[in-house]
Write a sequence for this structure.
């Protein structure tokens, strides 16, 4: 659950060209308040707190979870400050919230204590992931390199449903331009993620656009898509 491009502070993270810079980059994001500064220790930015973005998202995801015969097991892959996840807990039988930043996970554990909630500190690209009925990746993949995304995609087939939210340009764009993992996204390259296109070629049974939120001042749109997996 990461900040939308253009609404973050204009600071630059220096990352090395190592294969996995993500953990260090995300630690810097929170330590330097690059996605905004408020009274909390960790803040995942406007994209996780702006009612225009958050309210319809919670409504549509809760509505989907209510279609299950029994509440689903949900894996939130990139839970951030948990402002989104805490509003979905009551619609799941078990909610596993995962992030790459150890101090963030420790902080979340100290604040949120529920019988159906579990926090884990994992690198989505490198570590084994828990299993469940539905995986949520909310404005997470947009910050990652194509190499890392490819590694994560191979693990998504363990879920029946995958819900992915991405910040995209308003108009047509060239998909999947590569970036170095960090605070930035592909929007500045007039690109965005399309997991069904090369080099990812995600194999699915079906897809459904659940929600599209247009942002102000030509800053693109945020699309939430439900994928039914093979």
């Amino acid at each position: 659950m990461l900040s939308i491009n253009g609404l973050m502070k204009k600071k630059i993270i220096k990352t090395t060209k190592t294969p996995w810079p993500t953990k260090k980059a995300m630690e810097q994001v929170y330590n330097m308040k690059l996605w905004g500064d408020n009274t909390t220790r960790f803040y995942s930015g406007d994209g996780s707190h702006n009612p225009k973005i958050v309210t319809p998202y919670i409504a549509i995801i809760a509505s989907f979870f209510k279609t299950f015969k029994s509440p689903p097991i949900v894996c939130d892959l990139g839970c951030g400050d948990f402002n989104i996840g805490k509003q979905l807990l009551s619609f799941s039988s078990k909610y596993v919230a995962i992030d790459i930043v150890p101090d963030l996970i420790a902080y979340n554990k100290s604040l949120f204590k529920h019988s159906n909630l579990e926090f884990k500190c994992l690198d989505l690209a490198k570590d084994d992931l828990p299993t469940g009925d539905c995986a949520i990746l909310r404005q997470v993949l947009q910050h990652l390199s194509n190499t890392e995304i490819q590694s994560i995609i191979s693990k998504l087939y363990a879920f029946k449903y995958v819900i992915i939210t991405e910040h995209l340009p308003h108009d047509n764009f060239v998909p999947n331009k590569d970036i170095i993992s960090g605070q930035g996204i592909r929007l500045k390259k007039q690109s965005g993620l399309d997991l069904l296109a090369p080099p990812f070629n995600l194999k699915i049974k079906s897809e459904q656009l659940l929600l599209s939120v247009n942002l102000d001042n030509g800053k693109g749109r945020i699309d939430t898509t439900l994928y039914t997996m093979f």
